[in-house]
Amino acid sequence: MGAWGAASFENDAAGDWFLLVEEAVDPGAVIASALDYAVGAADHLELDASCEAIAAAELFASCAGQAPARLPDRVRRWVDANPHRPHDSEIEQAVDAVSRVRAESELREVWGEADGGQKNEWLREIGDLIARLRRSGAVDRATLSP
Hints:
Elements lengths: L11 H12 L3 H14 L6 H17 L9 H9 L6 H16 L2 H7 L3 H20 L11
Helix pairs in contact: 1-2, 1-3, 2-3, 2-5, 3-5, 3-7, 5-7
């Protein structure tokens, strides 16, 4: 992996996946697909799928006004152009996907092998993402549009 960091978009898999979101006619479907796969996959969640699920959850949180400080400029511009107040079910699915990645995934294994400080940084980033997702639930039921 060329790019590697604890934040949601600090890896190549998330960056490559985000290109699909940017080019999609229905970006909401691309985001939902990444989360659906992470929650529903029967097999061990592989590295790329884990990174994509984290990035998808980050987009939900960011579009709902809960962006992290370390959001890349390219992603921030897309978020500004695509505000979205996620449905409660979308928030729940995103939290479930991130929780699965944190508990049982190849990404978790990779971070488990990192030194303590790096592993703790990743766990803090994941915990912060879950907290921001929970704060992003809204009464407004608008849907994401291209």
